[in-house]
Amino acid sequence: MFGIGGGELIFILFIVLMLFGSDKVPEIARTMGKAMAQLKNATNDIKSEIQKGAEANGLDSKSLNDITGNINAEINNAKSNLLGDTGNLLGDTTNEIEKVKEDIDSLSGPIKRQR
Predict the structure, then answer these.
(1) Using an 8 Å Cβ cutoff, are 88 and 94 in contact?
(2) Distance separating the N- and C-terminal Cα atoms of the chain
(3) Which end of the chain is less packed: N or C, by CB atoms within 10 Å?
(4) Cβ-contact 25, 16 below 8 angstroms
(5) CA triplet 97, 99, 105: central angle to 5 degrees?
(6) Which residues 6+ apart lie within 8 Å of 91 measured at CB?
(7) Residue 115: pLDDT band by 50, 70, 90 thresholds?
(8) What are the two backbone dihedrals, phi and then psi, of residue 84, each rounded to the nearest 5 degrees?
(9) Could you tell me which residue, 67 or 10, shows the higher pLDDT?
């Protein structure tokens, strides 16, 4: 539940109990429950309004799934084109940089910057 373990939950409950007292905790829990129910109802209302709007414009859930599937396929295609076969964004660029470094080192030879 939200990545909180048992010990952490007990600690949080202990802090709440210390801050608000034992007589206020049930009232707070009731209020939190009502707020969560209102939030759930509001999100369901928003989802239904979006669905009605989509259906009014001729989009059903199947066509929306097709559209999102096509978008995801294009994103994956762009990623594979960018990353290439190596799976590395830089690809062969890293090898070329290393070659240039070696060439510069071979040209400078024993000459090094003195401080």
Answers:
(1) yes
(2) 59
(3) C
(4) yes
(5) 105
(6) 83, 84
(7) low
(8) 70, -165
(9) 10
Contact 13, 22 (CB under 8 A): no
Contact 68, 61 (CB under 8 A): no
Query: Token match 């994103």: residue?
Result: 75
CA 51, 55, 57, 59 dihedral sign is positive
What global pTM score does this model have? 0.42
Q: How far is it, in rounded angstroms, from Cα 48 to Cα 31?
A: 26
3-state secondary structure of 100: helix
90: confidence class by pLDDT, cuts 50, 70, 90: low
Long-range contacts of the stretch 53-61 (C-beta < 8 A, 24+): none
> pLDDT of 46-56, one tens digit each?
988 988 887 78
